[in-house]
């Protein structure tokens, strides 16, 4: 029995020493609960507010203004843009600029008097959480607010007509599966590249490589190219299975899907490269990947609508490649958007990749010290 | 060529100037120093390595051989001092030297999961060989380093000696002017070590300068010149024969029946630098200042018991004696 304790405590003491010397692991042990707590506590808000929407007021009447104000007062939506025609508003929805648009017809005042349905909401139904919030507005009691509190409208008539686009049956798989590509690519691409370089350092290959004429940038690009194909393969698997098993519609062009994916893969791979220049061991590379992965799942819009997050969480989300890709891939697959309408996110990913590769190549010295 | 192989240490290199851009000294280090925190791993080492020669670094574990080589390769920046490799300053312009130097690391640094041939081809491509030229060069190396049966074998399934042949093949693939070998034969048997050195002499005959670190005396003895390092400092430097001839000690071999009892009293003698047991003999290094070392020893030791066949003979010094003497004198 004493031998049992003796040997076991030897291992325990040794493990504590390992922990104490690996500052990165120790730091992660503290940071992960801290960051998770903040992310879950702040970012996660299933009650969606201030959804960005547009307005098409064809009536141009005082009633239109009052109705708009009343809708705003619910805090469910935030009118960000005005459009002349419902067509323009629809295009803005496809681009992802707004989640929905309220169309008020020319005969608004008349409808108000006749207790008819006042207008129509055009809603991007792909995110079920967002559309659920918007659907609350359907029976919003407007008339009282405007004309006469004594005249109650017939209960049967809804205030607004709701037109759900892209996901009329409101299935969550439709929104989740395209988003899953972003999460899976973040997980594998970042990890693969981060460990690929660190592994060479751990095994001693690096000491040989750096005495050859190879340039850091050649080494970096050479390292990431093979993984591009792995990433494209993963996306194909997810989308094909999503299509066959879960009936996720593919409304956009396949070329655009792959182009957007390619941009994101490159950005994720460079992120992995940057990590590889910061860590010493494969274990640390894995922890650093976790550190990127968690916010990429929680803040990118994958699990919770971007709109529902507080400002600070949105700022962090904007710094993550996954957030930009999440928007792009959902726009293309679900709303049939084309890449040229997603210029900002595409350019952001390209800029991230270029800056990342440069940074990694600069940080990577052909030195041992 | 055969000559230099049989008596390498006595043949001085005659190939300097073999290469068009050859400099007199392939390596010139000037008070090179490297500190790791409080530890000085290399302490103001200055040396000159003549082109087209084999130069040895001899020293115990941790004396700074690897650190020295890494600085000369431009992988570590010196804390102080400077060095010129093939006339080019390192680490500042180390990149210019990449195609002209080869480095075989102490720890095996090729890819364990690529076959010999794949490893060779990879390194070849890094040095901008391609197509037929690459295939030809790989075939040449496979031939030279006897790797034909190992072409498709992965290093993780090869013996220590085979791995080192492969590593040397990779290090010499681009025909470097200067080759750094860090303990290249640490896991090689004497027979294969001899073969390995024949390859080195072949390379040297073709004009390659080779810097090799070792802690084997027999290996050190084969070098044209030698630097003995201890605790980061250069203790002595020169060609092995001269070092042995100029040894600052007499070497006396003692035989007799009470040798074990004698060891401690001899060690305590003021003019004795070291005592080492070698089988049935004691090898004693006595200060060069003592004119008659045998008599000195006989005088200082208790008279031999009757029937003891105690004998003291003066013998030729070997490299180990040189090593012990130079490292011993500094320690006092
Ligand atoms: N990266 C490092 N950080 C701190 N100390 C180091 C580092 N590298 C080497 N040292 C120390 O510098 C000294 C010289 O090491 P070096 O590896 O050069 O010895 P060596 O002569 O090659 O030994 P060996 O024969 O065992 O290979 C040693 O004391 C070693 O502990
Ligand atoms: Mg060493």
TrEMBL record, chain A:
Its main location: membrane. It holds the Pfam family ABC2_membrane_3. The keyword Membrane applies. Keywords: Cell membrane, Membrane, Transmembrane, Transmembrane helix, Transport. It is found in: Cell inner membrane; Cell membrane. Residues 140-367 form the ABC transmembrane type-2 domain. GO terms for molecular function: ABC-type transporter activity. The chain crosses the membrane at residues 24-44, 176-198, 224-245, 257-276, 288-306, 346-364. GO terms for cellular component: ATP-binding cassette (ABC) transporter complex. It is a multi-pass membrane protein. Gene3D superfamilies: abc type-2 transporter like domain. Belongs to the ABC-2 integral membrane protein family. This is Transport permease protein.
Automatic annotation (TrEMBL), chain B:
Transmembrane segments: none annotated. SMART domains: AAA. Residues 1-21 are annotated as: Disordered. Keywords: ATP-binding, Nucleotide-binding. Residues 1-14 have a biased composition (Polar residues). PROSITE patterns: ABC_TRANSPORTER_1 (PS00211), ABC_TRANSPORTER_2 (PS50893). GO terms for molecular function: ATP binding; ATP hydrolysis activity. The keyword ATP-binding applies. CDD domains: ABC_DR_subfamily_A (cd03230). Pfam families: ABC_tran (PF00005). Residues 27-256 form the ABC transporter domain. InterPro entries: AAA+_ATPase, ABC_transporter-like_ATP-bd, ABC_transporter-like_CS, P-loop_NTPase. This is ABC transporter ATP-binding protein. It comes from Pseudomaricurvus hydrocarbonicus.
């Amino acid at each position: 029995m004493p031998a049992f304790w003796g040997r076991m405590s030897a291992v325990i003491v040794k493990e504590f020493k390992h922990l104490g010397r690996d500052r990165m692991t120790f730091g992660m042990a503290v940071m992960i609960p801290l960051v998770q707590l903040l992310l879950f506590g702040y970012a996660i808000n299933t009650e969606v507010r201030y959804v960005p929407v547009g307005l098409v007021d064809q009536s141009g009447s005082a009633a239109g203004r009052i109705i708009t104000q009343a809708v705003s007062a619910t805090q469910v939506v935030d009118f960000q843009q005005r459009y002349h025609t419902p067509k323009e508003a629809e295009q803005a929805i496809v681009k992802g600029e707004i989640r929905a648009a309220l169309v008020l017809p020319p005969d608004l005042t008349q409808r108000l008097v006749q207790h008819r349905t006042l207008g129509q909401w055009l809603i991007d139904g792909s995110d079920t959480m967002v559309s659920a919030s918007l659907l609350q507005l359907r029976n919003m009691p407007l008339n009282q607010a405007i004309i006469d509190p004594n005249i109650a409208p017939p209960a049967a008539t809804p205030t607004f007509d709701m037109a759900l686009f892209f996901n009329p049956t409101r299935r969550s798989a439709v929104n989740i599966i395209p988003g899953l590509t972003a999460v899976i690519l973040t997980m594998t691409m970042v990890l693969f590249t981060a460990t690929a370089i660190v592994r060479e350092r751990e095994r001693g290959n690096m000491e040989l490589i750096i005495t050859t004429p190879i340039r850091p940038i050649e080494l970096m690009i050479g390292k990431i190219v093979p993984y591009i194909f792995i990433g494209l393969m993963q996306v194909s698997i997810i989308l094909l299975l999503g299509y066959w098993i879960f009936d996720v519609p593919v409304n956009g062009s396949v070329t655009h899907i792959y182009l957007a994916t390619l941009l994101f893969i490159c950005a994720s791979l460079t992120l992995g490269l940057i990590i590889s220049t910061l860590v010493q061991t494969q274990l640390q590379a894995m922890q650093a990947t976790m550190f990127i992965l968690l916010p990429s799942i929680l803040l990118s819009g994958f699990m919770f609508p971007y709109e529902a997050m507080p400002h600070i969480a949105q700022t962090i989300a904007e710094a993550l490649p996954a957030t930009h890709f999440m928007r792009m891939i959902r726009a293309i697959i679900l709303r049939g958007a084309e890449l040229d309408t997603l210029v900002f996110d595409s350019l952001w990913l390209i800029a991230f990749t270029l800056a990342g590769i440069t940074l990694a190549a600069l940080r990577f010295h052909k030195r041992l010290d | 060529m055969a000559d230099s192989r049989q008596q390498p240490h006595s043949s001085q290199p005659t190939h300097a100037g073999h290469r068009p851009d050859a400099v007199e000294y392939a390596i010139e280090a000037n008070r090179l120093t490297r500190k790791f925190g409080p530890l000085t791993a290399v302490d103001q080492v200055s040396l000159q390595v003549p082109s087209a020669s084999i130069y040895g670094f001899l020293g115990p574990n941790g004396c700074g051989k690897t650190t020295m080589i890494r600085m000369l390769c431009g992988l570590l920046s010196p804390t102080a001092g400077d060095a010129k490799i093939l006339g080019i300053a390192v680490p500042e312009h180390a990149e210019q030297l990449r195609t002209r130097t080869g480095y075989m690391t102490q720890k095996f640094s090729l890819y364990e999961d690529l076959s010999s041939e794949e490893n060779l081809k990879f390194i070849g491509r890094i040095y901008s060989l391609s197509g037929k030229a690459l295939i030809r060069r790989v075939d040449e190396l496979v031939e030279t380093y006897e790797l034909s049966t190992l072409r498709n074998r992965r290093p993780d399934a090869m013996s220590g000696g085979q791995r080192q042949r492969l590593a040397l093949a990779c290090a010499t693939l681009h025909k470097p002017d200067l080759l750094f070998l860090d303990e290249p034969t640490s896991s090689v048997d004497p027979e294969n070590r001899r073969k390995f050195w024949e390859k080195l002499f072949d390379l040297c005959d073709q004009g390659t300068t080779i810097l090799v670190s070792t802690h084997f005396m027999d290996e050190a003895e084969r070098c044209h010149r030698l630097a003995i390092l201890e605790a980061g400092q250069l203790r002595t430097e020169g060609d092995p024969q001269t070092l042995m001839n100029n040894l600052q000690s007499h070497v006396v071999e003692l035989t007799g029946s009470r040798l074990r009892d004698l060891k401690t009293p001899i060690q305590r003698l003021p003019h004795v630098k070291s005592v080492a047991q070698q089988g049935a003999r004691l090898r004693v290094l006595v200060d060069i200042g003592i004119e008659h070392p045998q008599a000195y020893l006989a005088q200082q030791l208790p008279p031999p018991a009757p029937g003891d066949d105690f004998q003291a003979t003066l013998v030729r010094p070997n490299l180990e004696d040189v090593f012990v003497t130079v490292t011993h004198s500094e320690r006092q």
